[in-house]
Specification:
Blueprint lengths: L1 H15 L44 H13 L1 H22 L4 E12 L12 E2 L4 E2 L2 E15 L4 H67 L5 H36 L26 H7 L1 H22 L4 E12 L11 E10 L7 H67 L5 H6 L1 H28 L15
Antiparallel strand pairs: 1-4, 2-3, 4-5, 5-6
Helix pairs in contact: 2-4, 3-4, 4-5, 4-7, 4-10, 7-8, 8-10
Amino acid sequence: MSRRLLGLLGLCAALAGCALMREEGSLTPLRDPAQIRLADDLRLARDGWPEARWWSRYQDPQLDQLIEMAFAHAPSIAIARSHIEQARAQADTVKSLTGVQVELTALVNRQHVSANGFLGPFAENQPALGLTGPWYTQGIVGLGGAYQLDLWGRQRDQVDAALGVRNARQAEAAWIELEVASGVAQLYFQLQTAQQLLAELQQMSSIAGEAVAAHQARVDRGLEAEPLKQLAQSNKALIDRQVVALQSQAQQLREAMRALIGVGAEVSLPLSPRPLPERTYGVPQTLGYELLARRADLQAMRWLVQASYSNIDAAKAAFYPSFDIKAFFGADALHMGDLWDHDSRQMNLIPGMSLPIFDGGRLNAELANARSLSNGLVEQYNQAVLDAVRDVAVAGSRLQGLKSEERLQQQRIDNLRFNRDSAEAHYRRGLLDRVSALEANLPLLAEQSGLALLQGQRLAGEVALIKALGGGYRSSEDATASR
């Protein structure tokens, strides 16, 4: 009875002397989704959230093909997918450690026993006593198993953290796919805009060339002064310089597209000139929780925050006693010839407990580190939420302004078209010379180029808004990150 009492007192003393957990600092709260809203002065069409294949709404087979090529070849997407596989393997590894571990053990130990060691008698050669020293060939074969009891949830928390990282990597891959798709779309529309501008500038260059020839003919006949011809040549040189610049820009955009998609010069890209689409994108009625669920980057951050909370819980559980059970069943013999004898059977059942008592502050340091990492992730998440709302607001206000600019630009084009038509009518009636009638086309073509440029900017703004709204992503799992 006294031995039991002494054992109980020893256990109490050990528990009293175990490492003490320090509750230092507080966790940073997550931003309230109720605060996620747009300014009231943003007035765009309210047509809901983007669909999964948002680029299909432009009804451009070339754009569809380019994005599919990017999904198949883009290096950034391949890297993101490898990160998913790595995180999945890590989660499977952590999860596998929570079950029963069983392994087959087999070894042969050829040893020379020391006569001066604690096995000294076995160094003698006395067959009658079963001693055949000093050399022995020991054999062991059997099944060993171990199981750790997860009384405090440490293993469960470690699994949850690993699964959170895996889910975060999946969301990050979806965000990278959106970045690639939106990048391809923006480059494609920039290239189509450049090709449309190039066609109009080439038409302007042709008209300017005819005007220069007409001025030259007048100068040759003495009907016009030389400066007018020089001015016409200067205008043509300016237009030709813009043509060269646009041709260079178009080539740069093609190479940028190749790099983004991940293909070389041997692959032909579908980049034939096509009219710019007219459809304008809008914004949803509300943001709030929807924005959190539809932005893959925010979902990734929420999963990482959730994983950090699980890491904190696992760090806390490390302060408590851990219990495990080990077992062995097999055969153990000092001589290999006796290994399969009935008397060589061996069975072990070893319940165990370990409790940290003095660790030099290691556990508290690990807990503090887990809290610090979690707070840093929460701060990043809160900032990412603000950035996401800003992205939507900036892209929306940009589109709103571009719509007004396009409307005013179209009015200017209508006025110049009237002037051009009037000049042509005067020329047909002999009231205006041919040079003046030709040059009346130049301001109209220039303003049409300006309209094409605005349309290209609008399309780029639409793609930016689609990206800011998540591009059709929808979280399939609820990352409930709240503390």
